[in-house]
Design brief:
By secondary structure, the protein is an alpha/beta fold. Helices cover 36% and strands 19% of the residues. It has eight helices and eleven strands. The strands form three sheets. The chain has a six-stranded parallel sheet. A three-stranded antiparallel sheet has the order 1-11-10. The chain has a two-stranded antiparallel ribbon with strand order 3-4. Strand 5, helix 6 and strand 6 form a beta-alpha-beta unit. The longest helix has 17 residues. The chain is globular, with a radius of gyration of 17 Å. The C terminus is likely disordered.
Length: 228
């Protein structure tokens, strides 16, 4: 990508998996084992799992199964995922990007479908600091693509939804950001098909600039590096 898109905001809301952390290998291992246990095609379920909480994925894949069973199964899956961080690495540019938000005093929050234990384990495995404000699975009553998590993040930061920019990689996450009335920066190949405002290959293509009055200018695209 050579053109640069500039978005202005007052706060940033960041997904974790596929956005800050590349956990695809671990996600695939755990969910393919689950698919095998339930006689489902592993390749097909990988089209559904990204962005959602586990129980919501199960509800899509096993629509006749009682939700109580999905919730119990989800608890077991979260434990498996938390224990399996082999190959979990940062998305290129993520360490510099997060450092730029802290040094620039940019209001931001992690908004993830993972729970506290899983998000802590994956961010640690990737060597990334956890943002002070985190909206995790325990914080919400509905999974992405419901906008609850992003709206809660905006409210806790004290910023109007329209002044927030979401960073997401998945169909469910991008839909959640859109439903919250926010603009979306799509990260990676998955994002491009789902209508974000701009798509970048990774976070090396995003630069943050803080202006007067706390207005944040996001330069997305081109050959810039995260900083500012």
């Amino acid at each position: 990508m050579t053109a640069t898109t500039v978005l202005t905001a007052r706060a940033l809301l960041l997904d974790m998996d596929g956005t800050l952390v590349n956990s695809d290998a671990a996600v695939e291992r755990v969910w393919r084992r689950w698919a095998e246990r339930h006689g489902l095609d592993g390749a097909e379920i990988m089209k559904v799992v990204h962005g959602r909480q586990g129980y919501a994925t199960m509800a899509v894949l096993l629509p006749e199964r009682p939700m109580a069973e999905n919730l119990a199964d989800n608890t077991r899956m979260l434990a498996e995922e938390t224990a399996d961080v082999d190959g979990v690495v940062p998305i290129p540019g993520a360490p510099e990007f997060l450092a730029s938000l802290v040094s620039g005093g940019v209001p931001h929050a992690l908004v993830t479908s993972a729970d506290v234990a899983l998000s802590t384990a994956r961010m640690a495995a990737a060597g990334l600091p956890l943002p002070e404000l985190r909206v995790t699975a325990e914080s919400v009553g509905a999974s992405k693509p419901d906008p609850e998590g992003f709206l809660k993040g905006a409210a806790e930061l004290g910023v109007a939804p329209g002044d927030c920019v979401v960073f997401e990689d998945s169909e469910a996450g991008i839909a959640a950001g859109r439903a919250a009335g926010m603009r979306v920066v799509g990260i990676g190949e998955r994002a491009g098909a789902h209508g974000p405002d701009v798509v970048v290959p990774d976070l090396t293509s995003v630069r943050v600039e803080v202006g007067e009055g706390g207005v944040v200018r996001l330069h997305a695209g081109g050959d810039g590096e995260a900083g500012g």
